[in-house]
Amino acid sequence: MRKIYLALLTILLFGSSLFAQSSLNQAQIMQLCIDLPVFEQYGQLTSDENVVKIVSQYPIEFSNEMIKLVDPSKVVFQTSEMVKVNKVQAYFAFRFFEVGHNSASATVNYFYDYDLDSESYKMVAVNVSLKKSDKMWSVEDLILNEMSR
User: Fold this and answer.
1) pTM score of the predicted model
2) Segments making up each domain of the chain, as ranges
């Protein structure tokens, strides 16, 4: 009985560790994606550390565990409804987000100059591939597409 208890405890601790590591990787990748220098030439984004970036929780909804690992003074997560209610003029929306052990990929849309009344906006879509080496994530490939409506 004691062996079964120890085995279950080991599995539980190992699983919790993997889940925490997964959330940490997701937080690091999400932050790296919205901090890509390519976005600085669009809208109101700058490299200023005091600028708070808005991330829409649609269509990808990040877990509460991952959100807790992100600095709330730099990133605020809002539902798509809150983006509209707050009349946010610039925000990020992740369309695809996949994290493996040593690789990740994401499609990130950055909406800016958004006008809710006319429903016009400008958007930059970035497809990014990342790799992990020595516990650090780095961009391996990036494709950028501009659009306006």
Assistant:
1) 0.82
2) 2-148
